[in-house]
Amino acid sequence: MSDIEAKIRAKARELWLAEGQPEGRADQHWLEAEAIVRAEAEAQPKAPRKPRAAAAKKEPAEAKAPAAKKPAAKKEAAKKEVAKKPSLKVVSG
Question: Among 9, 43, 79, 92, which is 20 to 30 Å from 27 by CA?
């Protein structure tokens, strides 16, 4: 359940209790609670977001060791070596 859905549910229950717990009004309480919660959320100023680029440029606290050579790089090097060697063709006669 999302945070907003939990707030709507709590507000709908509050409205239901305030009206004396009437039966058959769940939809009305939900819609009214939804309108209240969404209006409250829109009225609150949002915190400014940091740009993603700034977060990406953040330096790590510890210096990391250089990454080991990946197996894919070894495979590429092996393919290049094989490509350099001339192949011998067997001719049957």
Answer: 43
